[in-house]
From TrEMBL:
<dbReference type="InterPro" id="IPR001455">
    <property type="entry name" value="TusA-like"/>
</dbReference>
<dbReference type="Pfam" id="PF01206">
    <property type="entry name" value="TusA"/>
</dbReference>
<comment type="similarity">
    <text>Belongs to the sulfur carrier protein TusA family.</text>
</comment>
<feature type="domain" description="UPF0033">
    <location>
        <begin position="11"/>
        <end position="35"/>
    </location>
</feature>
<protein>
    <recommendedName>
        <fullName>UPF0033 domain-containing protein</fullName>
    </recommendedName>
</protein>
<dbReference type="InterPro" id="IPR036868">
    <property type="entry name" value="TusA-like_sf"/>
</dbReference>
Length: 84
């Protein structure tokens, strides 16, 4: 991970499957301001492609980075989304 930004808020959607990580991310982004960065924690492996596709097709957001780590015995996919 080469994080060069400050996280404004963290959204924990661990244990939730498609489409909830994207739905909850969109809801959270709607409450943020331009320049804010949302950190999304997910356990759904599909969240990598789902959030990437959503960010690519959504005006006003940018997917900055995605990372994968082991946390409490499970794989956690961390996504960083910036409001443009």
């Amino acid at each position: 991970m080469t994080q060069e930004f400050t996280t404004t808020e963290t959204l924990d959607v661990r244990g939730q499957n498609c489409p909830m990580p994207v739905v909850k991310t969109k809801q959270s982004v709607d409450d943020l301001e331009s320049g804010d960065v949302l950190e999304v924690l997910a356990t759904d492996p599909g969240s990598e492609s789902d959030l990437g596709g959503w960010a690519d097709s959504t005006d006003g957001v940018a997917l900055l980075e995605q990372d994968q780590t082991e946390m409490d015995g499970e794989t956690v996919y961390t996504h960083y989304v910036r409001v443009e």
